[in-house]
Amino acid sequence: MTTWVELPPGTQRGIENLPYAVFAQGQAAPRVGVGIGDHVLDLARALGDDVFAQPSLNAFMARGRGGWQDARARIVDLLTDPGRRTTVEPALLPLSEITLQLPFDVADYVDFYSSMHHAQNVGRIFRPDQEPLQPNWRHLPVGYHGRAGTVVVSGTPITRPQGQRRGGADGAPEFGPSQKLDIEAEVGFVVGVGSDHWRSVETRAFEDHVFGVVLVNDWSARDLQAWETVPLGPFLGKSFATSISAWVVPLAALDAAHVAAPRQDPAPLPYLGGDHLYGLDIDLDVSINGRPLSHPRFAGMYWTPAQQLAHMTVNGASVRTGDLYASGTVSGEAREEWGSLLEITWNGRDPVELGDGSSRTFLEDGDTVIISASAPGPDGTRIGFGEVSGTIRPAATD
Question: N vs C: which end of the chain shows fewer Cβ within 10 Å?
């Protein structure tokens, strides 16, 4: 397909992508648009549909797969038919003139733990004399229920969290700002169509429920997490903030990125199985203060997004429009493919050097973390996810 929109060389927001976003321009109310090159198409204006005049994607996502397909076909037609240029071009707004917002109202948030390499690294760090994977890990997608109200859009500053952490030699806790603030490079999935309470979502129904994909940085206070995660799961060490990208790449843009699902041994229980399962070939890049840090690859994840959704609902729990569930840290076999400082520095033992001569074990105030990603598109194109970024601010004081 060829668009009449003038695209910058090498753009990853071509006609094959068409990611959705919510934007504000001047004093006008936020509304929904689609990215094309260095512009966003104002969909309420271009399509004449009030669902896109809303300040979130939720109402549009609730229309379901048929509605998503219809809208995408109409947008493609508008942007590829030269005869429509005169009427459509006024609805194209330069990205320099708008501000991107949180793209959807987050109903619930679940975070998984689906990278075998990450899970093995964490096990070796904290249980060096034991088997790194817990007995259940190969049988189900391990996860925890997060805090939807603290999901923030890319660019939102992150205030260093405070809480209890293990103290001195006597083991008594002390209170204060986290001294081991970390990142987790992840991929998130946005639910468009909910499910009924007490009815699980089968793996084959994944594309009927999930609208699109975002990038996620699940900020983690490792010292708070280590003290509180005995015996229950993450709580204050995770709940202070989770950042997501402003762009939502629709699943329909990722057909060329499908890869075979990983070989799982032992074979999962039937509700997690099926020959229709697939992974996604998404390449992530992580940097701190402009210095490249790692290059995780999502294609190597052990549990697929469809299996995560099936497991999340198999007990009868429902999902709703706007639910977000994330993959967990994306890590590969080599150090340059690890998605957290916990792994890269081996819990602070091996500092990482930055380009300015400084080093890091964990994040310092003023550090800016950027995670970007792309995936294969049709005919050799690349599908861009934009970025998820955040700058660390000092802990709040009274």
Answer: C
